Amino acid sequence: MVRVTAIVICAALAGCQAVPGEGPLASAINEDAGRSPADIGRVNAAVFDIVDVDNHTARLVSDYVSTALKRRFGIGGGPGRAVIGIGDQLKVTIFEAGADGLFSTSEQKQTPIEIVVQPDGTAAIPYVGTVRFAGRTLEEARQQILSSLKSKAVEPDVIIAMGDTPSRSVTVAGAVNRSAQISLNLSGEQITDVIAKAGGPTSQPYESYVTVVRGKRTGTALLKSIVENPSENIYVQPGDQIFVSKDPRTFTLLGAVKSNSRIDFGANDLNLLEAVALGRGGNDETVNAKGFFLFRYEDPEVVVGLLGKRRFDELTRKGMQADKEGRYPIVYRFDMSHPDSMLVGQTFPVKSRDVIYASRHPAVDLTKFLRVVGAPVGIAVQGAAISNNLSD
Length: 392
Hints:
The protein is of the alpha+beta class.
């Protein structure tokens, strides 16, 4: 009887690949890792690699701080020079020491002049003429006016004060309590400053994304990351457009689990064990405890840190491609049969749009196949048991 069972199993191991199932077996995922489309036999197959989740991997991934705005998009830097721009309203006050000067009388030693910077960047000042203001600081403009008056006025002095400054404003819109154009102060303001001036976000930071449009460059980051990572809380620049959008972070749980679904984080952070638990865990009758996989597009710095530069270059030569945000496909393999997985899983962070897949045990397909071909119940049970031992 054992010989008959063994013969049936040998035939079934190849045939059971055609049995319907919920996604690939762990062995199929492992075999495709690191292979080129030509090796796999599919022209447009995605090239990826597998990384085992252990203490080192979990620590590297959790410690990595994404710098989407500052590094990836080149948007950042300090507050920059506060300069006058087109459309700005200025109050120029000219003082004279003499009683009967160009700008003074016996009763008043000063004359205030309100101007608006014209589209060509200039404005006219009496007895000075046309003055270029756009692109200059208040002090630079003051010195130019003062220089022009020294031969005309009696011991002149000048003070320039800013009024409305449309050239030094940013637009904040989207999921904020009050969309508005925000005028920047002279010391410079950061993303969180202008969002606060717009009434703050309408949703929690962990589900609010901030997009900064500056010229032809665009960068998006999670508000939670901006708050937690000061280097991401960049200084905004005049003319920036800032859009806040609500996008609840979700992950997808598939395979031999009790609930295949797309699930909201519903929390500030989420680890791998918590994510599996949100789907009510693996199906005890079908899941392969050694075959939990997390599919993700990861930042290149993390991929290189996990695989090494040589392996990364090898995979790119084979056809591994980045997505539109410059991230590369990686698959994390998690073995739930090890006791320390309960510790490692608590430190491995889940990210938005991750796909967690629990592969079914090979015995499931073998049992299906034996039943399809009409094998006696006893042989089917023995076949499943032998398959289970072989997989270990």
